[in-house]
Amino acid sequence: MAEKLTQTERDEDLAPLLASGWSMVDGRDAIARRFEFRNFIEAWGFMTRAAMQAEKLNHHPEWSNVYNTVDVTLSTHDADGLTALDVKLAKRMDKLAK
Amino acid sequence: MAEKLTQTERDEDLAPLLASGWSMVDGRDAIARRFEFRNFIEAWGFMTRAAMQAEKLNHHPEWSNVYNTVDVTLSTHDADGLTALDVKLAKRMDKLAK
């Protein structure tokens, strides 16, 4: 069972994500980011690769897509907040979106 | 340029969708439906096939996914409301989800 991030982990692992495009979600221990692409095909390509990573991690995003835009929210349901899995998936998504 | 559905088209083409799982969205000329699957892989399979249809029609959904659930909203941005493209994509999605 995943454990919520400690304060040290938040300072070391979460802070860099918050400094580079992710933000805390109001009223939830969750992070969110909007990814924008040139068109639907590019957005879908990103989502497909991210979906594979999510399934491999057995950790799935809350996300929505409108044409070239993908809005992602990450949190760990079982832990009712952010865990190392969210940090891992966020980093992989950032890498895939590059 | 897509034209908004006429009243006759709404009676003949939209009504069957509204009778079988789709509903009008409050405050918008749009329809929405929730699709539920056994797990993420099944949900993703549906989305992938629907994405191909959307790209072929050059008409894209607003949709979100959380694990096994896919929420879809359809409307035609250029027409500021429902057009024949929305009816077509809704029917294809229903078929894919079966």
How would you portray this structure in words?
Chains A, B: Keywords: Lyase. Chains A, B: This is Putative pterin-4-alpha-carbinolamine dehydratase. Chains A, B: It comes from Mesobaculum littorinae. Two copies of one chain form a homodimer. The first copy, chain A, is α+β, with helices and mostly antiparallel strands. Chain A has a single domain, classed as Gyrase A, domain 2 (2-Layer Sandwich), CATH 3.30.1360. Helices cover 45% and strands 19% of the residues of chain A. The first copy, chain A, contains three helices and four strands. A four-stranded antiparallel β-sheet of chain A has the order 1-2-4-3, covered by helices on one side. In chain A, helix 1 runs parallel beside helix 3 and helix 2 (40-57) packs antiparallel against helix 3 (84-97). Chain A is globular. Chain A starts with 6 loop residues before the first helix and ends with a helix. Chains A and B meet through helix 2 and strand 3 of A and helix 2 and strand 3 of B.
Short key terms for the protein model shown above:
homodimer, 98 residues, alpha+beta, Gyrase A, domain 2, 4-stranded antiparallel sheet, 45% helix, 4-alpha-hydroxytetrahydrobiopterin dehydratase activity (chains A, B), Putative pterin-4-alpha-carbinolamine dehydratase (chains A, B), lyase (chains A, B), EC 4.2.1.96 (chains A, B), PCD_sf (chains A, B)
CATH superfamily of chain A: Transcriptional coactivator/pterin dehydratase
Report the sheet with the most strands of chain A, covering strand number, pairing sense and barrel closure: 4 strands, antiparallel
Low-confidence stretches of chain A: none
Alpha carbon gap, first and last residue of chain A: 31 Å
The neighbouring-strand order within the major sheet of chain A is 1-2-4-3
Q: CATH topology of chain A, what is it called?
A: Gyrase A, domain 2
The tally of helices of chain A reads 3
Instruction: Give the assembly state of these chains.
Output: homodimer
Total strands of chain A: 4
The amount of helix of chain A comes to 40-55%
- Counted up, domains of chain A total 1
- What CATH architecture of chain A would you give? 2-Layer Sandwich
Query: What Rg of chain A do the Cα atoms give?
Result: 13 Å
Overall form of chain A: globular
